[in-house]
Amino acid sequence: MMKRMVCLGGLFALLGTSWAQLVISGNENKIDLTSGTPEVVPGAEADSLSLIDFSDFPPKVDHLYGIANSVIGPPSNIAISPDGELALIANSLKIDPDDPTQYVPEDHVHVLDLAASPPRVMTVKADLQPSGLSISADGSYALVANRAAGTVSVLHIEGKSVSLAQNVTVCAPELNVSDVAIHPNGHLALASVQQGGYLAVLAIDKGEVQLTDRKISVYGKPYRVVITPDGEVGLTAGQGFGSAIDSDALTVVDLESDPIRSVNYLAIGAVPESIEVSPDGKLIAAVLMAGSNLPPGDPHRTDAGSVVLMSRKGTSVEIEQTVPVGPIPEGVAFTSDGDYLLVQSHPARAIWVFEVKRRRLQDTGLRIEVPGMPSSLRAAPAGLEEPKAWFSRGQKDEP
């Protein structure tokens, strides 16, 4: 079994690598969670991205330094375009220039040109504290949830050009719109209003977005929200209003019914952080804090989080397996072929890698070390085939 792995510089030197199996991890250094509450790290190193290529196993890994991202917000603040040309990374927070012990909202999204060598970074303005985001199936636009503004930004995408087209008010800022998922048909989106305790429904027509009056009831405080590849089901999970040791639940939303509605709840464990659906839509993975995020000295603090693997048929979901992972797990992602599942551990600065076989997770023993506290994670959409230019030119960003 392989126990640890770091590969610096190898990815940029590859020849003929398939882009289809790319996974991007956002790694933050400026905010630490191990005390039980977010704390600013004095004199922190720059944040980074880790680009992980699963076209072979073990995967190749390389890092891009100096790209700010944050653990504050759902781990869906990264998305890769359907053609693999671009990645979007929300820059949610910055250290307060007037008080270096505090942080304040940022207002822009990084645009990573993956066809450039090395990948080129641009920015586009969104709104206050851009967080969870999604790119439409046709790649023509993205939606970004802005937690401190109560808005969803609409970013139009044309080739390598990304521009702000619209800011849509979803809720009062204090209700925290945290994440947004776009239906595969491009006409509907669900936005998780965390402190409001509901999913907002957005109508989309030719890239124009409008808030509807529909509010979908869900369990607790919805955080991450996803839509299955077949468009039949929406899924969300978040902490309820109890303690950090009470079991929380996954909410299943039937998107085929008229009107769409929540139809099922499944208890999965304490404090879900992120959820993801396999490329074929048959499996769902959720990571749970499971007490690992509690402060030192708390009698319920644990040394490990967990990942729950669930199977899905229509709107029916059942638990297949619960597996321990590192403490304070953040992002979770299936590779684009569905063969592997990745789970981040924030304080361990590492990513656990599991093989997915017959609705079971098998620990490969591989831990991918990253240069920061991994906070967000996203895989490339299924179906990408061609290698991108920067893989083959042997160049690398430096810190």
String of helices and strands: EEEEEEEEEEEEEEEEEEEEEEEEEEEEEE
Overall number of domains: 1
Class from secondary-structure proportions = mainly beta
Q: What is the CATH topology classification name?
A: Methylamine Dehydrogenase, Chain H
Spatial strand order of the main sheet: 5-4-1-30
State the fourth-level CATH superfamily: YVTN repeat-like/Quinoprotein amine dehydrogenase
Indicate the CATH architecture: 7 Propeller
Q: What would CATH call the class? A: Mainly Beta
Estimated helix fraction: under 10%
Distance between the amino and carboxyl termini: 31 Å
Q: Any low-confidence stretches, pLDDT <50, length ≥5? A: 1-10, 12-18, 385-399
Rg is 19 Å
- Would you report the number of β strands? 30
What percent of residues are in strands? over 45%
Largest sheet: 4 strands, antiparallel
